[in-house]
Amino acid sequence: MYDNFVEALDQLTEREAKRLLLRLYTETAAAGDMPDGEKRVISLLNHMFSDIQQLQTGQPLTQQDLNQVHIVCGESAAGSLRVALSGLEVRQKRVIALSSDLSIGPLSHLDDQSGMAEREAWIQETFTEFSEEGEHPISESVKAIRAIPDHIPIIIWTSDNACEQTGLCFILHLLRNP
């Protein structure tokens, strides 16, 4: 087992090794203040060892390991990302678009129906030419983000504008462990 692990470690790039070490450090530091911190660190180490061994030549990652979700603010950016990712055949790609511009309007309780209804009413009152039919514009995005399993890697694409930074905060709010 030791030889297999050493062989798998040798296959890591310098960047991958540094990221693993940094993750281990940050998780260990955070676990120090938790009552079950030791169990959490041991679990993390076991997962890391397992992941590293799966990278060994001749042991391909399972389809579940290859899944990932991309989250982006705006339908246009989501379409562009889908096109860019379409050439990559290695991974299953899923793109979720947060379609509402959160840089304007009420943001309170957007993760429930009352907050969405309040925001929609404000938008319709403020922008009289706006008419949205069907469900609240962000309700599908909220459902999709909340449905992401814990073990699936998530990549959030943002820039430094107000819309995407507010969207990032909302996405992180949805992804937190309650």
UniProtKB/TrEMBL annotation:
- UniProt cross-references to InterPro entries, sorted A to Z: DUF1835 (IPR014973)
**Which named protein is this?**
DUF1835 domain-containing protein
The organism's lineage?
Bacteria, Bacillati, Bacillota, Bacilli, Bacillales
Domain DUF1835 span(s) in chain numbering: 69-177
